[in-house]
Amino acid sequence: MESSFYCDKCTQILPGWAVPDDNAVIREFASAIGLVDAAGRPTKVGAALVLDFYSRLLTAAPALAARFPQDLVDASAALDGAGAKQRDRLLRAVLSVMSTFNPGDEQRMAALIAVLEEMALKHQRHGATIEEYAAVVSVLLGVLGDFARTSNVPHNIWLEAFEPALRRALTFASGRMMAAESAITAQPVEEPPTEVLERPETLEDSEALAQS
Ligand code: HEM
Q1: How far apart are the CA of 20 and the centre of ligand 1, in A?
Q2: What would the pLDDT profile of 105-117 be if each residue is shown by its tens digit?
Q3: N or C: which end of the chain has fewer CB atoms below 10 A?
Q4: What contacts 26, CB < 8 A, 6 or more positions away?
């Protein structure tokens, strides 16, 4: 695939790929695989990507299926079904990580961390393990790599620029979610004060207590 970028040093459009920093690289990748259109708006490619992602995740870790809606990987199920809704939520989360992850910008990183902590709060009840988080990152990178291949992204550019930047973003996201989840779990639960109940010795005592 022919690609070009604006070189701000020589102020010309040059053939090839710009690799100024992770955020720009990831944005460029999103456009290279058609995940976003020329104006940066999400396209239908995202729906195919998450469907592929969940199919592979459940193949790699079948035990996870029980925690998700039954129609999670059923592309023909109703669009307003639980599976489609979950895929849409994940897509939004992935797009948000891809667009916000920017190690050079403290404010954007703080905003991303706030989003990740909120997601971690929602995940707490699912009790995901480190291995499951690692599986999510590796399956997602595998799917993104395949979309790169089918979009004719040169393999060396995938290996040298896109994959490392995406890996850093996704590892950061899952690391922050795991850290936030364990911080929530480690918080001491405030016990309500124990009510001391008088223990009835006899049936009459219990009736007397009930009437008091
Ligand atoms: C970087 C890693 C992950 C991201 C970005 C992510 C993202 C999300 C998002 C956005 C939701 C929807 C939350 C809501 O609004 O209710 C969700 C739900 C869920 N996630 Fe994750 N997740 C990640 C890792 C994991 C892992 C490792 C597990 C393994 C157990 C997991 C299991 C679930 C389950 C069971 C749900 C709820 C599905 C339902 O409501 O039926 N997630 N995830």
Answers
A1: 31
A2: 888 989 999 999 9
A3: C
A4: 98, 99, 101, 162, 165, 166, 169
Q: Which of 50, 119, 166 to mutate to test the pocket of ligand 1 (most atoms within 8 A of CB)?
A: 119
Mapped onto helix, strand or coil, the DSSP state of residue 13 is: strand
Please give the structure tokens belonging to residue 22: 């992770």
Number of the ligand 1 atom closest to the C-alpha atom of 129: 27
Task: For tokens 């079948």, name the residue.
Answer: 62
Q: Which amino acid is at 184?
A: I
User: Which atom of ligand 1 is nearest the CA belonging to 68?
Assistant: 41
Higher-confidence residue of 18 and 54: namely: 54
Q: Is 86 in the pocket of ligand 1 (CB under 6 A)?
A: yes
The answer, yes or no, to whether any atom of ligand 1 lies below 6 A from the CB of 85, is: no
What pLDDT, in 10s, does the model give residues 148-201? 999 999 999 999 999 999 999 999 999 999 999 988 877 765 665 555 444 434
pTM above 0.85, yes or no: no
pLDDT score of 210 more than 50: no
Residue 201's pLDDT is what? 46
Q: How far apart, in whole angstroms, are the C-alpha atoms of residue 169 and residue 163?
A: 10
Question: Quick check: CB of 128 below 6 Å from ligand 1?
Answer: yes
Which residue carries 């079904």 as its tokens? 81
